[in-house]
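#lab-general

N.A. 3:47 PM
ok so I finally got the sequence cleaned up, no stray characters, all 119 residues accounted for. can someone with queue access submit it? mine expired

B.Y. 3:52 PM
send it over

N.A. 3:53 PM
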Amino acid sequence: MEAASSRQCTRGGHRVDLVARLPWAQTVTYWGDLDSHGFAILNRLRSRGVDATSALMDMDTLFDHRDLWGIDPDPNVGVFELLTPDERATLQSLSAEGNIRLEQERIPWSFALARLGVR
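B.Y. 4:20 PM
back already:
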């Protein structure tokens, strides 16, 4: 788990230690980029005691948006022991498909809101 932490601090999304100290943010829904770094952030949140549930970081979202994929030029190759089996499978697919990534801002709002049950 700690093998990934040295690289996690290099990106703006890795403000996990700050979030973990916020008393009102101990249970969160996390929607990060569908890439190795997004899963690293999710894993780190959980390692800091935050009850984090991922949203739209799954196989269906990934493969429904194949046309929006990009290449992750510097994938995080850490060990993320706190991912669920489904999250781990999605992470493995990212690698198997050629270190691809799907940035969350590329996912259409209509898809995201429908999957989240927001009208």
